[in-house]
Design goal:
about 20% strand; alpha+beta; 4 strands; 3 helices; single chain; four-stranded antiparallel β-sheet; about 140 residues; elongated
Length: about 140
């Protein structure tokens, strides 16, 4: 059991793993998997369970003497997008600590920043920690 939501553990395909992220799209999964494998972490990927569907509300009983209402036509829900859970076999891994501890590197040798991890930036540009910058 995790101490908090930032450091979760789970058995993924029978392997004890630290969960990196849940409900990943295929593109995000590919990005994180390549980044973590480059940093020598063994990754484990499993399909996330589909979200639970809401139960339909029961119809109110018809009033006495009234004709019963026809059953409403239920449209099929579109298929849920395929989502994944990504974990690493190193149970001490914590994404928050790895990012802010400057432990991960990109393929071009730069330190992984939060913006790069969240895919808000294409290149990781933060070479000097904020506390060492001279403003």
């Amino acid at each position: 059991m995790a101490i908090n939501k930032n450091h979760e553990f789970e058995d993924l395909d029978g392997i004890k793993c630290a969960v990196v992220e849940r409900n990943l799209s295929p593109a995000r999964l590919q990005f994180l998997k390549e980044l973590l494998e480059y940093n020598r972490f063994t990754t484990v990927v499993v399909a996330s369970p589909p979200p639970k569907a809401a139960a339909p509300k029961p119809a109110a009983p018809p009033a006495e003497g009234a004709a019963p209402e026809p059953a409403p036509v239920v449209a099929e829900a579109p298929p849920a997008p395929e989502l994944f859970t990504l974990g690493v076999t190193d149970s001490t891994f914590n994404a928050t600590n790895a990012i802010f501890g400057r432990l991960l590197k990109t393929r071009d040798g730069h330190v992984v920043t939060l913006a790069y991890w969240q895919q808000k930036e294409i290149l990781s540009q933060d070479e000097v920690p904020y506390f060492q910058k001279k403003s």
